Amino acid sequence: MTTMAQADAVRVTVGVDTHRDTHVAAAKDGxxxxxxxxxxxxxxxxxxxxxxxxxxxxxVEAFGVEGTGSYGKALGPLPANPxxxxxxxxxx
Length: 92
Known about the structure:
The chain is about 20% helix and about 35% strand. It has helices at about 5, 45-55, and strands spanning about 10-20, 20-30, 35-40, 60-65. The radius of gyration is 13 Å and the shape is globular.
């Protein structure tokens, strides 16, 4: 059975601009409208905050991470869909 909350779930895509000490993330909905932005420290706590923040916006469909070979390396394992049961590959 589909509930009203499930039917109205916002689909979210998150893009992350990576830097040495902080990462800046922006989220858009399925129509490409800006939902929110945040800045997180490049620490395990910051990576967990990023996942929590993104989930709070809706159903995360994808992450786009800049520089996965350098500053964004720790974010490379972010799950494509970190929704219920999708929390595999937590950033280290």
